[in-house]
Design goal:
CATH topology of the largest domain: Jelly Rolls
Low-confidence stretches: 181-186
CATH class of the largest domain: Mainly Beta
Strand content: 15-25%
Radius of gyration: 23 Å
Strand order of the largest sheet: 1-2-9-4-7
Largest sheet: 5 strands, antiparallel
CATH architecture of the largest domain: Sandwich
Distance between the termini: 73 Å
Order of helices and strands: EEEEEEEEEHHHHHHHHHHH
Mean pLDDT: 84
Number of helices: 11
Structural class: alpha+beta
Number of domains: 3
């Protein structure tokens, strides 16, 4: 039997505890025990594939895919066992928050909307969202989790940073929950990719980089994005960049090289080539009429 992977505490205060579990070199399978404190909310982000969870107090079992998450309220102290099989990595992040902290943060006595949010949290309505399956992390959630894991400062700066990130995570979860009855769920992976590209197309990003940053295999990214939007990821990035470049080119105060950099091109020659291919004319000729 494989030993339990190390439990790394990233942050601990009177109200919040953040733990990272990661077993990068499983011999056969990995197991881990997760503790939920009395009157606590637990955010659990599943960062590796095919994680099984069994709640010890009620015997309930869950199976998670990579990048799913749950927000669970535990009225009493409880434990859960998590494991993987067939040499698969066990990797997840647990954020445990005291009830009193959430109560004062949301302030349910101030209005009905706040009271409803807290009630939904206590009733564990945030565990299952779309079609009775655990929700997937959004791109923004991914970025926040990575920021929390990689943050190196200690003391009051870390405390303020962690609390701000937790508030942002809760806002994103509430927004995702409130959208479930008003919009038809779009395929999660293509929509995650599109959102990421929409926000970062001006950077020098490639499909491989997208895969690393949002935790999805690059071949899966290419296949599912093309199937959903009938365009490749690379062509979609190029389209966004060219639309932005065409808007900027009319401003003669901005150098062509600056436009290229702003649109995600490291070399102005590549930008000029792409621009001419798209519009049939070079940036200089279009600018000069």
């Amino acid at each position: 039997m494989k030993n339990q992977p190390d439990r790394k505490i990233l942050f601990r205060s009177d109200d919040i505890e953040i733990c990272l579990q990661e077993d990068l070199y499983p011999e056969k399978f990995s197991r881990s025990m997760m503790i939920e404190g009395k009157s606590s909310f637990n955010l659990l982000f599943l960062l590796s594939q095919n994680i099984h969870l069994e709640a010890q107090d009620c015997g309930t079992r869950f199976s998670f895919k990579k990048n799913q998450y749950i927000l669970h309220y535990s009225p009493q102290e409880s434990t859960a066992e998590l494991w993987t099989e067939n040499l698969e990595t066990l990797h997840y992040l647990q954020i445990q928050i005291n009830y009193d902290y959430i109560f004062h943060l949301i302030n349910p006595e101030s209005n009905k909307e706040n009271a409803d949010i807290l009630e939904n949290m206590i009733k564990n309505n945030y565990i299952f969202l779309h079609k009775q399956t655990p929700p997937y992390m959004t791109v923004e959630m991914h970025m926040i989790v990575k920021e929390i894991v990689s943050y190196s400062k200690k003391g009051v700066m870390q405390k303020l940073f962690i609390e701000a990130k937790i508030i942002k995570l809760l806002i994103l979860i509430f927004e995702q929950f409130n959208e479930k009855n008003t919009v038809e769920e779009s395929p999660e992976i293509p929509s995650m990719i599109k959102k990421f590209v929409d926000e970062n197309y001006h950077e020098n990003i490639k499909v491989e980089e997208i895969g690393k940053r949002i935790g999805i295999n690059q071949n899966k990214i290419r296949k599912e994005f093309k199937a959903q939007y009938n365009i490749t990821v690379s062509d979609y990035i190029a389209e966004l960049r060219m639309l932005k470049a065409k808007k900027m080119i009319i401003n003669k105060k901005i150098m062509i090289k600056e436009i290229a950099i702003e649109c995600g091109y490291e070399y102005v020659q590549n930008f000029t080539r792409a621009f001419k291919k798209k519009f049939g004319i070079s940036p200089e000729k279009l600018r000069n009429g």
